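[PROTEIN RECORD]
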Amino acid sequence: MRVLVTGAGGQVGRELVIALERRAEAMRRDRLEVVATTRAELDLCRRDHVLAAVHAVEPDVIIHPAAFTAVDDCERRPELAFATNAMGTRFLAEAARQVGAHLCYLSTDYVFDGRAERPYVEWDLPNPLSVYGRSKLGGERELDPGWTIVRTSWVCGRFGANMAKTVLRLAAKSDDPLHFVDDQRGSPTIVSDLVERVMDLALGRFAGTFHVTNQGATTWYGFARAVLAAAGEDPRRVEPIDSASLTPPRPAPRPANSVLENAALAATGLGLLPAWEDSLTALVHALRAQGEG
């Protein structure tokens, strides 16, 4: 089996390639070959480039985490957001059909408006508030029914920018109180856990939409306190604020509730991810070991 990974230089893509290589070693490399492509190597905004790259590799499975994920920048550059997240996925889907590959697309909690008072299940109707959410939903709609969509949320890992790193950086910068919003609720997801289940779903060619997050929910205020606690620092340094108090205001609206229930994943029997607090502690220790914060 040959697997093509997009966005291999990104937060999820980089750890996904590492996990796939580890699985290839366990399976013997003659049974699983991994082809990693970065943004420079695979320009999703160019149809000819995408088709040529996929035909050159002839993958059996394509895992597609590459995206324009800077939520506020998407509001400022909507053309690029849709060109990358929606049209780029259209081009990749076209290429996948031509070579007979199974496509697994990583999507987001931002496809929901956050107005529900319960966790969102896979069959709830999307209603994105932001350009980022609309462009990622556009990408979802380019997939064939037999392919895989993985929605996730509040992603933090060893590579790239994320909220766990931000908290550690701000805490190390000064002894001042840290302020994080307490009116946005979601499911933190640790990349090392996420990529294991993405591999299971993609390589197993599971059809349909799956929510994949660590178990449990919190606010960004609660998350920041947990990061400091895991780092051995005083979580009381974190003080709650509401989103309207952010200075400067954020261009992109955030869903107030983006907790994702992993109903479809539970039904597959593959197993749910661990509690977010446990995995966050391991991540914070790994970040501190590599000099973050």
Notes: The first strand starts at residue 2 and ends at 5.
